[in-house]
Amino acid sequence: MGLRKRNFIMKALRYFVLIGFAVITILPFWNMIVVSLKPFQFAMSYPPQLLPSDLTFANYKEAWTSGNFGHYFKNSFLISIAATVGGTLVACMLAFALSRYRFPGRKMIFGMFIGTMMIPGITFIIPQYLLLKNLHLLNTYSGLTLLYIAGAIPFHMFLYKGFFDDIPKELEEAVVIDGGNRWTFFSRVAIHISLPAVATSVIMLFNGNWGEFLGALTFMSDPEKWTLPVAIRMLQGTHTTEYGLVFAASIISMLPIIALFLTFQRFIIKGIAAGAVKG
Amino acid sequence: MQNSLGLESNAAVGKPKRRGWLRRHYGIYLFALPAIVLFLTFSVYPIIYSFIRSFSDWQLIGASPFVGLRNYRTVLADPNVGIAFKNALLNFVVSIPIQVVFGLLLAIVLDRPIRGRGFFRALFYIPVLVTWIVVIQIYLYMFNKDYGLINYLLLKTHLISEGIDWLGSPTRTLVSVFAMGGWKGIGWAMLIFLAGLQSIPTDLYEASGLDGASKWQQFRYITIPGLRNTTVFVIVLLSIGAFNVFDQVFLLFTGAAPSDYDVPLSMIYNKAFSELNFGYSAALSYIMAAVIIMISVIQFKVLPKNSGTEG
């Protein structure tokens, strides 16, 4: 068998795997999208709806207006943005201190953050509830935001630290010679070098906060304060068989994440891979 | 803040005079302070609080008398805990092979340049990003006995002769929902394997190519041994994740799950929020944490150094 022929077969085989798997990946979402675009009565018909016909945006309109999803979208957006900005800043600064400097207590601080990573979050959801209650932070945006930030620190500190560890000392010395200080080095140099890590961390943080439901479900009982995941959950509870409506709401909630990911995917994929290899 | 951040700090690694050192370098602590304060308040304090309360008859209102190890004894004697751990083990058995096998396959296919590589890589990662709140809706819809896509496809291909009631028994439900979890996680495994493949030095392939090694021999004697550490890393992280399974089980039911369906974490939640048995819930939490820590310790023992152990 000639080399060219064999290469051709290899390539065909690779495409076979890729396209086959693309179908497996897309099919569930496709099913959801088609149903969300169909009138109510088609949701539970057999055979399953896979062809886009009789399309309507009625489900989307209903979810956004009478389902109040515009409002939940805003809630989710505010909390996710605040928690992402806060989490990035706080985790990044901590990682910088732990990575670049030796100081008394460094090992202990590192151990505290890493040690608690093993304990599942549900373990302390009740004390967190009591804590928020005592601080009058139940049913507040800031309460949930602060919890999200605190919960995100260990993992994201770890991600940043892997990158900061690799920055050569000489670079910092160069900044000093040019009259800069620690803050200049951090904000102007270290962050810039670590942009893949920043992009990864920001998207992962945003995605985590955007999709989080257990905390939101537990600490935000006031319907005015619901985030998208809680609202979808409630919608499913009250409209069990209206799959079109529930799927329309789900797709509304997915769009920002998919858009964000596709925009920054180059960075993110590099960052996740590097984070896994470096720690 | 600016002028206090003296740069000589780097040199001060040796044995500084503590006081003067602190005065000049408190800037370092300022970097770490916000994270420490937030974390102590919202994570460490609740952890310690619930740990202490796990030794008491925990009441939300009124006194919570100390009862020693009673909660722990009750948990260990509860047959439902055994079921919950068995269900988590089922997740381990169902979801991990799916993620490892398909993740590895896709990584190998995407390792070398091919048209559409970036597109496929991004596409396969999308299910990882979608929250379980949404995925569980798709699951419930697709696995419906009467109008679901899964039964339709199985019937059409004559793999089954009549529709399977996926949601009819705990085992069938859990196996199918865990399989869906495997589907959701393949993209993550793929990315980690891709990183592993890219860290295998290319000169190994070049040198062996010059020595006349075939593609298959290269795969067998360079790629597979080169991926050993990555594979261990992926399996360890997936194992921890498999025992921490919660979302998909918790979301299956609108109320508390029947105990046949419970996994450890959903049991922790239900014991507290449905049965208000907080002491029991806390004790189970720490037994669960001990199991996770054990798996993690084994991770550090099994994994060689400098191979992604820190991730």
How would you characterize the overall build of this protein?
The complex is a heterodimer of chains A (279) and B (311). Chain A is mainly alpha-helical and 279 residues long. Chain A has two domains: 3-56, no CATH class; 59-278, MetI-like fold (Orthogonal Bundle), CATH 1.10.3720. Chain A has twelve helices and no strands. In chain A, helix 3 (69-100) packs parallel to helix 6, helix 6 (141-164) runs parallel beside helix 12 and helix 9 (195-211) packs antiparallel against helix 12. Chain A starts with a helix and ends with a helix. The model of chain A has no long low-confidence stretch (mean pLDDT 88). Chain B has two domains: 2-53, no CATH class; 72-302, MetI-like fold (Orthogonal Bundle), CATH 1.10.3720. Chain B is built from 13 helices and no strands. Chain B has helices at residues 18-53, 70-77, 79-111, 117-129, 132-142, 149-156, 170-198, 202-210, 215-226, 228-243, 247-250, 264-273, 278-302. The interface between A and B is large, with 104 and 97 residues.
